[in-house]
Amino acid sequence: MPKNQQTTKDEKSLVYTVEEHIELLKFLIKVMPNRSRNSVKSILARGQVTVDEHMETQYNYTLHPGQSVTILKNKASVKESALIGMRIVHEDEDIIVINKEAGLLSIATEKEKERTAHHQLMEYVRREDPQNRIFVVHRLDKDTSGVMMFAKNEKVKRTLQDAWKENVKERTYVALVEGEVKKAKGYISSWLKESSTHLVYSSSNKNDGQHAITHYNVIQSNKKFSLVEIQLETGRKNQIRVHMQDLGNPVVGDKKYGSKTNEIRRLGLHAKVLSFNHPTSGKLLRFEADIPGSFFAKSK
Question: Does pTM surpass 0.85?
């Protein structure tokens, strides 16, 4: 059993330091000897396990020495905290803003209906009133962490979506990318198209697809990795991932778009800032999610 076991002050979770290369399920069975294999599987499936900075549900996920594994202790704790893989940073009558962890789906897919940010927030607001609902305004990829907003009624959703470009004043991401970005500051402009296999790619031919513009600024870098701040002028599907590949510096962990490494064992993409005019009051709001520590560590 790992020696560096640590219980958090609120006694709701257990933290372990990994000391060997081992699959996650085997590790959990090892540190929870009083639980059956099926019980441990359920804990994993419910999203009660976090590895470093992301929620992990895959039984065969490979752990490495030095990683930190956090286990939310029991069902009561899950119910009490209500939200797994995210936390609410702002809520009012019209909107909810969350900080989403890498590994959590924004919305349902054919394979997963419940372990999503949308479903959890729907359950959360319905505890107050069964008639309450949550509406999707925009999305983050499953493996992207950071700031994300939902609407609490359809009118607000339409208001935000119909004038998204006018309402959103800042949308900043940070990406940990492979290699040393040659130019410290610049932008990428192309027309994005999607293949029949759902792979997005750039076309240099004018009007051949959706026009996409990405501005970037290098925060720090070394020969292996660069930490890049990114401002989106347009918000196309997989835009950052495609444009970083176009630049010759694919996002770490993004095998789909050219990455050869995955040293942080997650996608190196984080939604850092979302700033927008409130759909009802018009007041300018700004929300920021701290850059994951692993991004800084690798790009020093």
Answer: no
